[in-house]
Every structure is written in structure tokens, then in C-alpha cells.
């Protein structure tokens, strides 16, 4: 599965499961660790974990094995590493504090 298809699959699943303010960041020109970062807001720490659990089930159904998950138990920020796509699900307060979109929207340096 191409990284763009995987990102779309994740976006769709997050949307179906009521994630808020889903943003997909194309970071291919900024880092070599991943192609896309998807940032979404959850209504609570439990919702954040649940959203990532649903995404894991969906990607496994499509033959993708997640690399890892961080911050599951009672965390305001759950990170799901799918290789070409990294998913950040955060509570509103954590998302406002860390401002990942702002961090990754800085233009890449020209060589």
C-alpha cells in the first residue's frame, strides 16, 4: 500500500470514529523518517486510545503491521507509528500546547 493510500485510510477511520480537527501533514520534504503525519484531536484520553485502537484494527485488515504505539494508558497524547504514516491523537489541551502543525509547517531548507 502506498503511503498516500495509507494516510487516506487512517484519515477515513479517524473521521468515522469521531476524531476532531484531523490534519494530514506531508513531511516528505522535511524528514526521512516518515511521509505523512496525521494529527487529530480526541475528546478525552480514553477516546484517544480508542481512536488508535480502531486505526490499528483497520490497517491490520489491510495487511499493514503497526511498528509501535506510545502513550496509551491515560495519556493526553497517543502516537501510532505505521512507518510511512505517523498518527498523533491528542486531547485538545495537549494539541494546543505542542502545536505540531506549526512545528512541521516550517519550510524545508533549500540545498
UniProtKB/TrEMBL annotation:
Q: Which InterPro entries does the protein's record reference?
A: Iojap/RsfS/C7orf30, NT_sf
Q: Which GO terms describe its molecular function?
A: ribosomal large subunit binding
Lineage: superkingdom: Bacteria
Pfam families from the xrefs? RsfS
List the GO terms this entry assigns under cellular component, sorted alphabetically: cytoplasm
Among Gene3D superfamilies, the record links this protein to: Beta Polymerase, domain 2
Record's keyword terms, sorted: Cytoplasm, Repressor, Translation regulation
An example Gene Ontology biological process:
negative regulation of ribosome biogenesis
- Subcellular location(s) per record: Cytoplasm
Q: Which family does it belong to?
A: Belongs to the Iojap/RsfS family.
What does the subunit section of this Swiss-Prot or TrEMBL entry state?
Interacts with ribosomal protein uL14 (rplN).
Q: What is this protein's function per UniProt?
A: Functions as a ribosomal silencing factor. Interacts with ribosomal protein uL14 (rplN), blocking formation of intersubunit bridge B8. Prevents association of the 30S and 50S ribosomal subunits and the formation of functional ribosomes, thus repressing translation.
Name-wise, this protein is: Ribosomal silencing factor RsfS
Species for this entry? Methylomonas koyamae
Please spell out the taxonomic lineage of the organism that makes this protein: Bacteria, Pseudomonadati, Pseudomonadota, Gammaproteobacteria, Methylococcales
Amino acid at each position: 500500500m502506498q503511503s498516500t493510500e495509507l494516510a487516506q485510510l487512517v484519515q477515513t477511520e479517524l473521521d468515522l470514529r469521531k476524531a476532531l480537527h484531523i490534519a494530514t501533514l506531508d513531511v516528505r520534504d522535511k524528514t526521512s523518517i516518515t511521509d505523512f503525519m496525521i494529527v487529530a484531536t480526541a475528546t478525552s484520553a480514553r477516546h484517544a486510545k480508542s481512536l488508535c485502537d480502531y486505526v490499528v484494527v483497520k490497517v491490520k485488515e489491510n495487511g499493514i503491521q503497526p511498528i509501535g504505539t506510545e502513550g496509551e494508558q491515560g495519556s493526553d497524547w497517543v502516537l501510532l507509528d505505521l512507518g510511512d504514516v505517523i498518527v498523533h491523537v491528542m486531547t485538545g489541551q495537549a494539541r494546543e500546547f505542542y502545536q505540531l502543525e506549526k512545528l512541521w509547517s516550517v519550510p524545508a531548507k533549500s540545498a
